[in-house]
Amino acid sequence: MNRHGWWRDAVIYQVYVRSFLDSTGDGIGDLAGVRAGLPYLKKLGVDGIWLSPFYPSPQHDHGYDVADYCGVDPLFGDLAEFDLLMATAHRLGIRVLLDIVPNHCSSEHPWFREALAAEPGSEARARFHFTDGRGPGGDEPPNNWHAMFGGPAWSRITEPDGRPGQWYLHMFTPEQPDWNWRNPEIPAEFERVLRFWLDRGVDGFRIDVAAGLFKHPELPDSPDPEADARTRDSVNPLAWNQPEVHDVWRNWRAVCEEYTARDGRERLLVGEVSVPSAREHAKYVRPDELHQAFFFDLLGAPWDPDAFRKVISEAMQDIAGTGSTVTWVLNNHDQVRTVTRYGEAAMEGSGLGAARARAAALLMLALPGAAYVYQGEELGLPEVVDLPDDVLTDPIFRRTGSRARVRDGCRVPLPWSGQVSPFGFTSGTQSAKPWLPQPSYFAEYVTERALADTRSFWHLYRDGLQLRSALPQLGEGSLRWLDTPPDVLAFVRGDGLVCAVNFGTSPTAAPVSGTPLLTSGDCPPGVLAGSTAAWWITDGTDL
């Protein structure tokens, strides 16, 4: 295995396409908008982008219900526009990852429509999980599993002759039937999909629900049937993290290696892996499986130095020990934005939340391995928490009627310029409003303002990325913890580069002396301000 692959310490920017930049004026971001925004991302300094699904879809779950894995939904453009985007990105030195959804498809996928029209026991139904119900007349679901987005994980169909029929499995929504990966047609079809996009030049794939795919072959009852719905995570041990899934990633890795062998350009597989521990996580990034898998424990850690040190140490021991590198994340399209999450935890509003988010960003960029940044985090965008019920589109809200953990608030379209909505997000001959309303306070976060203010979140990220690229101590490698005062976490990278974070709110003496390189807040000489991170170059005498 090449231990010096570009992906090992890359910083990838997640583009949520429908909320990035709208080139047509219909209120929905598109591929041409992504292409227009590439110079902005080049200036920021990221190594690549991950595009959320843009495939043909009825959009019941914003594209994660895929009707055609080898096309572009007209909402977002067409294949010609995709090819232009790829060419522009590569010309700028930006790699492109696609989001692939192998656990489930859309109920509008041709194979599922064929299954609905077919008979029980047919080859068409064998591509999915169709089975008879329990109880008199088969009126009860086949087991007690719950969907992650609320409600039972089974829906009953009406047979072609009009009779109540079989049930099919959907671990998310009824519009997202789960594939049956025990059917050899499914892995063969997804290999075809991979090759279609690899032939168009993509640099790899982010894999949705990578611990999914296989279900226990007997589909037994769960001892905790509401676990998935309660946690909104893949925790049912009968529906997720089955051992057979690792063979899929070995096969996909072989396909990527085949393309790499042709031209020397490494293709990346990075998985969304939700499993109980770092040790389980490490199994997915063994040398012949996925290159990387998102490590979500840092995102979920409370603002506490001991908690951060624990999750970082476990990741370094279990994941980096496989020969891979840890893939750090603080946010994505499914999570409350970092500024708001840390502010709510502090119960002191957005000011402290913003300080903590800046410090966490600087800490993440100093850690060994790769990092993924969700769009808008570089602007310090807060979560939009007061969207009216009538504009919410998240299927979690439609399925449960509850606003708890609804994801629309982190998906509000980006503000680019101006003082009023649409803040430069949408342009063209039409004048549609953004698909989710932008609050008036987004005027404080527009990119043109962020670029002009050297104290902004944007400059913190840009400066951190520049230093990360320029300093040999950063990127891939190891770290060593330093002894520190209470509330302070500090580690050394390479030859004398120190990152320290003050998790408290009061200033404290800096744990080392030396030359300050970058700070997330105001740090007088010799002092580490509260809720602040800083990087220093030291001569090593006080380490």
Description:
This protein has 543 residues and is α/β, with parallel strands linked by helices. It is built from 14 helices and 18 strands. The protein has helices spanning 31-44, 79-91, 110-117, 185-198, 227-231, 245-263, 278-283, 297-300, 305-318, 338-346, 350-366, 395-400, 447-452, 457-470, and strands at residues 11-15, 48-51, 95-100, 130-131, 154-158, 164-169, 204-207, 268-271, 292-295, 327-329, 370-374, 479-481, 488-493, 497-502, 508-509, 515-519, 527-528, 532-537. The protein has an eight-stranded parallel beta barrel with strand order 1-2-3-7-8-9-10-11. Strands 12-13-14-18-16 form a five-stranded antiparallel sheet. The protein has a three-stranded antiparallel sheet with strand order 4-6-5, with no helix packed on it. It is globular. The mean pLDDT is 94.
Read across the widest sheet, the strand sequence of neighbours is 1-2-3-7-8-9-10-11
Coarse structural class: alpha/beta
Give the number of helices.
Answer: 14
Largest sheet report? 8 strands, parallel, barrel
- Tally of DSSP β-strands: 18
Distance between termini? 34 Å
Indicate the proportion of strand residues.
5-15%
Q: What helical percentage do the residues reach?
A: 25-40%
- The gyration radius over C-alpha positions equals 24 Å
What do the pLDDT scores average to? 94
Unreliable runs: none
Q: Overall 3D geometry?
A: globular
